[in-house]
Amino acid sequence: MAIECDLVLPCRDEAPALPAVLANVPPGFRSIVVDNASRDGTGEVAESLGAYVVREPRPGYGSAVHAGVVASTAPYVAVADGDGSFDLRELRPLLDLVRNGHATMAVGRRRAVRRGVMPWHARLGNALVASWLRVTNSLPVHDIAPVRVCRRPDLLDLGVRDRGFGYPLELLIRAGRSGWRVVEVDVQYLPRAEGTRSKVSGSVLGTARAVRDFARAMT
Questions:
Q1: How is the beta sheet containing 105-112 ordered, strand by strand?
Q2: pLDDT by residue (tens digit) across 142-178?
Q3: Measuring CA to CA, which of 36, 108, 184, 196 is 20 to 30 A from 87?
Q4: Cβ atoms within 10 A of the Cβ of 21, count?
Q5: Do residues 9 and 71 touch, judged by C-beta distance below 8 A?
Q6: Cα–Cα distance between 17 and 185 in angstroms, integer?
Q7: Which domains does the chain have, with CATH numbers?
């Protein structure tokens, strides 16, 4: 099957999650695993499973995403975490919305499959940022686009500069200011794969860095 969409999976120490994650990539999507200075053999595991691997030594979520987008060649590009918290088969409806012209970018809204999957402080912070986006940028979103699909040229032309945790927030801000039609779709939010840890909510330092990057993106 021809490749319709490149799927960028920014990964830092996500080796335990990759077998199940890559097994659920839909037909027509090519997996691009961006090994963001992992220490657990993430890149090697991804290669053994048939994924295309990009190595980005500069730490940061935005650095990893940007490296994957630059390496992509398909007309459409999707981005999702590689920690097993999403069912990647749900990407197909998002791609269809963009391909059919109903959205410039289709994004996921996390719906936890059970209590405790998303920590309370992460839910609160996400709700506050999404509310700010609705008020200041007229974007009909309730999440900060943890999963998203758009045309690759559109994304590159948007010129997102943040290379940290603020990348998805800056992306949404720029999309709103550029008049993009952003369509939000509910997606399942699953427990992370065993042996992996959230880079944001998994530590005080990660949360502090995310707050710093979000604040910078909002100014």
A1: 52-55, 29-35, 5-11, 76-79, 148-151, 105-112, 182-189
A2: 999 899 999 999 999 999 999 998 999 999 999 999 9
A3: 36
A4: 27
A5: no
A6: 24
A7: 5-218 (3.90.550.10)
pLDDT digits over 67-92, tens only?
A: 999 999 999 999 999 999 999 999 99
- Six-digit token pair at 135? 């008020």
Amino acid letter, residue 22: L
CA–CA separation, 183 and 139 (whole Å): 9
